[in-house]
Design goal:
Elements lengths: L4 H9 L5 H7 L7 H16 L9 H10 L22 H10 L7 E6 L6 H9 L3 E6 L6 E4 L5 E4 L5 E5 L6 H8 L1 H12 L5 E3 L10 E4 L10 E7 L7 H14 E11 L8 E8 L2 E9 L21 H14 L2 H17 L3 E3 L5 E3 L6 H17 L2 H11 L4 E3 L5 E3 L3 H4 L4
Parallel strand pairs: 1-2, 1-8, 2-7, 8-9
Antiparallel strand pairs: 3-4, 3-6, 4-5, 9-10, 10-11, 11-15, 12-13, 14-15
Helix pairs in contact: 1-3, 2-4, 5-6, 11-12
C-alpha cells in the first residue's frame, strides 16, 4: 500500500519539508496508484542522493502533484508519451559533432523514439547537416485533427485515436485537457468525423534532404548506423527490455559507432546519459555522464523513472549525486555559489528559514530558462564541474570532463549499486 505524503516526508526527509511544499503535494494522496508509486520512487531517490528538504521547492512539488498525473503512461492510451520539445537534445547533437570529427563518408544517425512533432530530430538534421538521419517512432500518426486552440489528436489509418496533446506542455490548457480525458478524447473523435479537419501524413512536412522518418520502434529496424540515440524512452521499460534493446543496437551499429541513451528535461537541462561504443562485435559500456545541474537539481527529470532499480541512468545518476554531495565542503560551497547566482539572475533564492524558492512559475519561461542556463555556465566557470570530478576521483571513480563539458564517469559497481 502506498505511503501518504506525510509518511514519505517522515521517512525520507525526517519531517522537514516546508509547509507550502507539503500543501502542494497533498493532492497526491488522492491520486491513482501509478502517481503515488512514482512519487515514492522519487522520494526514495532523493534520500539516496542526499537531496535536502531545504532544496525541495514548491515548483518541484507542483510538478509532482499537477504535471506528473498528466504525463505518466496511465494518462494516455499509449505506453510512451510522445512529448518532444525544441532544443531538448541539442547537447547530444554537439556530442556527436565532437565524437565524429573526421568525416570521410556520410555518417548515419537513428533517432529512435523521436516522438511527434519530431522537434529534436529536426534540430539534429540542422546541426548535423552532413549526416543522413532517420527518425523512428511506432506512434507516428497517419493523420492529425486540430481544434481551434491549436491542440491536436493523432490517429492511425484505422481511425483509432493514438493520443491527444496540448500545443504546449507548460500551460493550464495541458492540465485542463487531462482533467476529463474521456471528454477530450470524445471531442477529438467527433472533430475527426469532418475529413476537412484532418491533416494527412503530417510527418511528411518535417522531412528534409538529410532526414526521413519511419513508423517503427526499438528492434524493428535492420539498417547500419554510426550512431543511435534513444532519449527519454528507456526509463519507461524494465531491465529485460533494455537487454533486448542493447542486443538490437549491437546488431545495427557500425564498428566505432555509439549508442546514446538517457534522459533530459524538456528544456534540455539536467541530462543523465550512458554512452555505449561498438568495438568489433562488442557493445562496450563506455561512459556515464551528467551535467553540473545534477548536483542540486531543480527539475522533475532528475527523479523521473518508472522502475526502482531497472533504470540504469537513474541509478547511476542518484549514486553519483550521493558521492558528490557526500563531500561536505564541496556541497556547502556549491550551494552558496548556486544561491548567489540565482539571486543575481533573478530566478530564485532562499527565504529566511533556508528553504529554496524558484521563479519558474512567475518568470516568463524563455527568460527563466536562459537565466538557469547562465547559472549553470557560471558554476562551471567557477570550477564546480572540475571540483565535482575531483570529488568522484577521491571516491575511487574514474571521472573526467567530456567533450560537451559534462561530468563523465567510467561505469562501475559504485555507480550501479542498488538504490537503498
Amino acid at each position: 500500500m502506498s505511503l501518504s505524503i506525510h509518511d514519505l516526508n517522515t521517512r525520507h526527509f525526517a519531517g522537514r519539508l516546508s509547509a507550502p511544499v507539503l500543501d502542494t503535494l497533498s493532492p497526491i494522496d488522492r491520486e491513482r496508484p501509478e502517481v503515488r508509486a512514482f512519487t515514492e520512487r522519487a522520494f526514495r531517490q532523493m534520500r539516496a542522493a542526499n537531496f535536502r528538504a531545504e532544496d525541495f521547492t514548491t515548483a518541484l512539488a507542483h510538478a509532482l502533484s499537477r504535471v506528473v498525473p498528466n504525463i505518466l503512461p496511465g494518462a494516455w492510451t499509449v505506453p510512451v508519451p510522445p512529448i518532444t520539445a525544441t532544443d531538448r537534445n541539442r547537447l547530444f547533437d554537439e556530442y556527436l559533432a565532437h565524437r565524429f570529427t573526421a568525416n570521410p563518408t556520410t555518417r548515419r544517425l537513428l533517432d529512435i523514439g523521436c516522438g511527434f512533432p519530431p522537434h529534436t530530430t529536426l534540430d539534429s538534421a540542422q546541426r548535423l547537416a552532413d549526416w543522413q538521419i532517420v527518425g523512428a517512432d511506432p506512434l507516428i500518426p497517419d493523420y492529425l485533427v486540430t481544434d481551434n486552440n491549436g491542440d491536436y489528436a493523432a490517429f492511425n489509418a484505422k481511425d483509432a485515436m493514438l493520443y491527444f496533446q496540448s500545443s504546449a506542455i507548460e500551460n493550464d490548457r495541458w492540465n485542463d485537457s487531462h482533467a476529463d480525458r474521456r471528454a477530450t478524447e470524445q471531442r477529438f473523435i467527433t472533430l475527426a468525423r469532418d475529413i476537412n479537419r484532418r491533416t494527412l501524413n503530417p510527418i511528411a512536412a518535417y522531412e528534409r534532404n538529410n532526414l526521413r522518418f519511419v513508423q517503427a520502434g526499438i528492434g524493428e529496424i535492420d539498417e547500419p548506423f554510426d550512431a543511435i540515440r534513444c532519449l527519454n524512452v528507456l526509463y519507461y521499460f524494465d531491465r529485460a527490455f533494455r537487454v533486448k534493446t542493447l542486443a538490437w543496437v549491437n546488431r545495427c551499429l557500425n564498428d566505432g559507432g555509439v549508442f546514446l541513451c538517457g534522459a533530459t528535461a524538456p528544456n534540455g537541462s539536467t541530462p543523465r546519459y550512458t554512452v555505449y561504443r561498438k568495438e568489433g562485435e562488442t557493445l562496450v559500456d563506455a561512459e556515464f555522464a551528467m551535467s553540473i545541474e545534477s548536483i542540486l537539481p531543480t527539475t522533475l527529470i532528475a527523479w523521473y523513472t518508472m522502475y526502482d532499480d531497472d533504470d540504469t541512468e537513474t541509478r547511476r545518476h542518484t549514486n553519483a549525486m550521493r558521492l558528490i554531495r557526500s563531500d561536505n565542503d564541496f556541497t556547502r560551497d556549491h550551494a552558496a555559489a548556486f544561491d548567489a547566482l540565482l539571486s543575481e539572475y533573478g530566478c530564485g533564492g532562499r527565504s529566511a528559514d533556508g528553504y529554496l524558492h524558484l521563479a519558474s512559475e512567475t518568470m516568463p519561461q524563455p527568460a527563466y530558462r536562459q537565466a538557469m542556463r547562465s547559472v549553470a555556465a557560471r558554476l562551471d566557470e567557477a570550477g564546480y564541474v572540475d571540483r565535482a570530478i575531483e570529488t568522484l576521483k577521491r571516491a575511487g571513480i574514474g571521472a573526467w570532463r567530456n567533450a560537451v563539458d559534462n561530468i563523465a564517469m567510467t561505469p562501475c559497481n559504485a555507480l550501479d549499486a542498488p538504490i537503498p
